């Protein structure tokens, strides 16, 4: 006896204005999950709140490069990317952010989104890529090391007066 099988589609694409609410929801859940206990609570809450639906719609209108990862039509992750902001590094592209809803992490979807982001940088003529990661974010460090990234620089960011170290991982 044959049974019907269903197909679930998984894909990446450039974000549109209709995606702003879903991207804001992914941002809220993933940042709270990734940085809770790492970034001071008040600073994290402020960062999450300022990146609501309107902020994302404005970013998309300004032609910020935002990719989304969809599963069966539901946005479960996003990446932002563009030119490397640190001129002392030779890599032309940068993946500024890459986040998935917590329940979709650890099953290869981040890798799929990251490869799509790097592919988009290459399509835009940018050779090499860099990603910055907080030193305390062991999960992200492991992800980027497993993706072949090499640590190339160290910096820091200040959150409510607390200095947090961050590392740059790069791909040629």
Number of helices: 5
Strand order of the largest sheet: 1-2-3-4-5-7-6
The multimeric state of the shown protein is: single chain
> Rg to the nearest angstrom?
17 Å
CATH topology-level name? Aminopeptidase
* Largest sheet report: 7 strands, mixed
The backbone outline, from C-alpha atoms, is globular
CATH architecture: 3-Layer(aba) Sandwich
CATH class: Alpha Beta
Integer average pLDDT: 95
Strand content range: 25-35%
What is the distance, rounded to the nearest whole angstrom, between the alpha carbons of the first and last residues? 52 Å
Percent helix range: 25-40%
CATH H level, superfamily name? Gcn5-related N-acetyltransferase (GNAT)
Q: Output the helix-strand order.
A: EHHHEEEHEHEE
Domain count: the total is 1
The total of beta strands comes to 7
Give structural notes.
It contains 5 helices and 7 strands, in the order βαααβββαβαββ. With 172 residues, the chain is of the alpha+beta class. It has a single domain, classed as 3-Layer(aba) Sandwich (Aminopeptidase). A 7-stranded mixed beta sheet has the order 1-2-3-4-5-7-6. α1 (20-35) packs antiparallel against α2 and α1 crosses α3.
Topology summary:
Layout lengths: L9 E5 L5 H16 L5 H10 L2 H9 L3 E7 L2 E10 L9 E8 L8 H15 L5 E6 L3 H9 L3 E10 L2 E10 L1
Parallel strand pairs: 4-5
Antiparallel strand pairs: 1-2, 2-3, 3-4, 5-7, 6-7
């Amino acid at each position: 006896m044959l049974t019907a099988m269903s197909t679930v589609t998984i894909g990446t694409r450039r974000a549109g204005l209709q995606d702003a609410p879903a991207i804001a929801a992914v941002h809220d859940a993933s940042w709270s999950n990734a940085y809770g206990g790492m970034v001071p609570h008040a600073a994290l809450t402020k960062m999450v709140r300022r990146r609501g639906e309107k902020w994302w719609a404005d970013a998309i209108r300004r032609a910020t490069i935002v990719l989304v990862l969809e599963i069966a039509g539901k946005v479960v992750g996003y990446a932002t990317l563009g030119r490397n902001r640190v001129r002392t590094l030779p890599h032309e592209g940068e993946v500024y952010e890459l986040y998935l809803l917590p329940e979709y992490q650890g099953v290869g979807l981040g890798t799929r989104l990251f490869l799509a982001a790097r592919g988009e940088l290459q399509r835009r003529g940018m050779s090499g890529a860099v990603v910055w990661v907080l030193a305390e974010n062991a999960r992200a460090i492991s992800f980027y090391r497993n993706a072949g990234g090499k640590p190339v620089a160290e910096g820091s960011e200040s959150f409510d007066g607390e200095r947090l170290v961050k590392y740059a991982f790069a791909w040629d």
